[in-house]
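Tutorial handout. Part one gives the primary structure; part two gives the three-dimensional structure as C-alpha cells.
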Amino acid sequence: MSWQTLATQLFPGGHDILERDNFLSGTAQVDGRTVAIIGTTEHVPIGIEIALAQAQAILNTVQEHPGRPILILVDTQGQRLRHRDEMLGINSYMAHLGKCVDLARRKGHTVIGLVYDQALSGGFITSGLIASACYALPAATIRVMGLPAMARITKVPEERLTELARDNPVFAPGPENYLRMGGLHGIWQDDLANALARALAECGTDDVRMALGQERGGRLLAQPVAQAVRTGGHVRPT
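Part two.
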C-alpha cells in the first residue's frame, strides 16, 4: 500500500503530509485533534539523514506543540549499510532517534507506530517498536533479522532455525508473530481511521509489551525475569 492510499484511509478529516527523499512529515486530523506525522516510504534504509530528520521532527513537536500525539508510519528495510554511514557513527544517530521518541513519551506525547509495509532491523527498533504502542497492517513484513542472516551470526543451521520458527515466534517473521510476542498491540484491518482514533484514545503511559507477550504465549519469560530483577526474586522455569 502506498503512503498516499494509507493517508486517505487513515485521515478522512484531511492531512498535509509531504514526502521528501522518502521522508514523510506533516500533520493530520484525527477525531478533531491534530496529530504529528513522521515516517518513511519506499522501503528506504535509515541512514544518518533520515534518522536526523525524524529526530528533528519529533523534537520540534515536543518543543512547539506540547502533548500533541505523534504517529510514526513505518516502511523501511532497516539501517543503511554503507561504509560512510558506519564511519559517521550510524549507531549513534539511531540511538539519538530512539532517545527522542522516548523523550516525547516522557513529556506526555502519545506515540503510535504503524507498520504499513516493511519493518526490518534497527530502522524498526528505534521508531515503531519504541513507540507507546505499535500496530501493523495484515500484509506488513516485519522481522529484525532474516533466518539466513541469523544462521550466519549464531552458527545455528538455517534448517534448525526454520524448524524452531514453526512453533516459536521469536524466530519467525510477520505481524502475527510480533503480535504474539507483544511487540505489536494489534493488527488493523478494514476501518483504519477508527482503529487509529481508538488507539490514540486507549494508549496508556505504561509499557505493557512484556505482559502482552506473556499473556499471548509468545514471550513467557520476559515478564517474570524483569519482575525478579526488580524484586530480587527467582524465576521458575515453565
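Part three, for discussion. The beta strands are 18-20, 23-30, 33-40, 70-76, 111-120, 133-136, 141-143, 186-187. Residues 10 and 194 are 8 Å apart (CA to CA).
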